[in-house]
Structures are given as C-alpha cells and as structure tokens.
C-alpha cells in the first residue's frame, strides 16, 4: 500500500497538492488530467525524485527519508523518455542496466524486444518514438517489482505492440501487484484501470472506481466521462 499524506510540492510557480491518497495492492490506478495538471510531477514525487516532507509518502509503513533504498526495490519505472544516452546501442543499455539492478531479467527483455523487431545493435537515437517506448516499457516491466509505475507508455506505440503490452500488464496484475499509470488515452483507461484519478491544477479532482464512475455518468464512454469531469460536471443526472 502507498499512503500520501498532505503532500505539497512547489516547483517554480506551480503547486502540487495538498494531496491525500491511498493506493492499495491488487489494483490499476490510471492518473489522468489536462496538460500541466501535475501528473508527471506527482509521479516523480511518488518515486522519490522530488523531495517531500517526512511521512508525506509511505510505502508499506516505510518513508523515503529513512528507507529510500528499500522502497526503490519495491517498484519499477517505465519512463516517458529515455534516461540514458541516445548514442548507446540498445544492447549496451540493457547490459548496463543488468549490472546496476539485479532484479532486471535481461533474457526476457531480449526475447520481448526481438519479438517486437527492435534491432538490438541500433543506437537509441536511431529508434522511432514507438520503438523507444517499447524499449522503455521492456526495461521497466522486466525488472522484478511489486509496483509498476508507467508514464505515458503508449504514446507512438503501434496497435499490435500496444495490445501485447496491455496483455503483459494484465499478466502482471494476476499476481496481486499494483500498477500506477499516467495516461490520457481513454481506451487504455477503460481496458485496464480499476480506479481513475483525475488531477486538476495540482490537486485530485476525482478518485473513483471506474465501474462506479460509469454508473454515475450513466455511460461506458470513458472519454465523455473525463471530458465532463474536466468541465466540472458531476454526473449526467
């Protein structure tokens, strides 16, 4: 479980929070909202990349200030953009990661990338946007964890690869783990999420079970539901 207690972060002129939130194991949480609503900043803070007050973020009773090493072993991260040099070859990146993190299963990662026809001797800058996203997904997914955090993993990814990634994420959830997913794609939210969290101006506007959300708005159209929420409409009643 992750508990967020009165989290407040100031970055330049933007304020994130205050945010209070509980995320439980066994569920997929889709975080969405307009551009500039604070989604990525919130994700970075959850991962300890942004400093926060002691006990503002608790992982299974552990806080970042005293237990950063232990907490970082709990999660794996699928970044929005590559965090490594784009002059490296794909296979060089994977070998470096395998040396840095013993949780990383390089063999399964190679197998998946070969299936996606990613040329392992390609330099990162030679990859398309979709291929970079597939690589980033593979690195995060094949790193053993109980919490998988993904930042816009489907942008630029083709339909076939997208379907396979969604299936892998469902497999991950079969083990009663947790997924935290930042996405603006209503189809992804509908097919994967248990809960929807809508951020607006750095604060949580909505956190609701997706089935209850559909019942409240009397529609299964997630895109229209999200548009209504962002317009400040509470339901279709």
UniProtKB/TrEMBL annotation:
<dbReference type="InterPro" id="IPR003593">
    <property type="entry name" value="AAA+_ATPase"/>
</dbReference>
<keyword id="KW-0547">Nucleotide-binding</keyword>
<dbReference type="GO" id="GO:0005524">
    <property type="term" value="F:ATP binding"/>
</dbReference>
<dbReference type="InterPro" id="IPR003439">
    <property type="entry name" value="ABC_transporter-like_ATP-bd"/>
</dbReference>
<dbReference type="InterPro" id="IPR051782">
    <property type="entry name" value="ABC_Transporter_VariousFunc"/>
</dbReference>
<protein>
    <submittedName>
        <fullName>ABC transporter, ATP-binding protein</fullName>
    </submittedName>
</protein>
<dbReference type="GO" id="GO:0016887">
    <property type="term" value="F:ATP hydrolysis activity"/>
</dbReference>
<dbReference type="Pfam" id="PF00005">
    <property type="entry name" value="ABC_tran"/>
</dbReference>
<keyword id="KW-0813">Transport</keyword>
<keyword id="KW-0067">ATP-binding</keyword>
<dbReference type="InterPro" id="IPR027417">
    <property type="entry name" value="P-loop_NTPase"/>
</dbReference>
<feature type="domain" description="ABC transporter">
    <location>
        <begin position="1"/>
        <end position="226"/>
    </location>
</feature>
